[in-house]
Amino acid sequence: MTYTIPDEPTPTAQAKLAVRPMWPLFALMFVNTGISWLWFLANGFFQGSPYLKKEIGWIIVGLLGSTLAVFAIIAAFSQGIIDNTTIPYLLIVLTVWKLAISYKVFELQNRSFELFEYYQETISNGAIPFIAMVIVFQQFSLLQLLPSFIFLVLR
Question: Is the pTM of this model over 0.85?
């Protein structure tokens, strides 16, 4: 019989690339949702999160919910159910949805990260890639690169 801790991570060979889960959460706030969710997935893989399947599931739910919400807003606007003055308020609901999903993923990763940090010799400084992302994404607008539907889902 082997004793295991339920929250114990199983680090991968790229464990030194793992950062504190707060950095992908900050990326959600200051960069965009798509980058944040990709970073959460990579970070969960790097640290060997025991909740990686749940994290992937929550991000898929987040993407599906965001896509459905944007589709519903566009459909309601084109049908004349809502007008231009209502759309900003509905986009706030979409933002809250993305924050809720991201916070759930953050909580799942943060559970095991302290154990990961305790047993690992070093972890990466998430401030460096975060600052780089903020600088890069301030230089160009995703709205110019992506169709508006995809932009709203990933914004």
Answer: yes
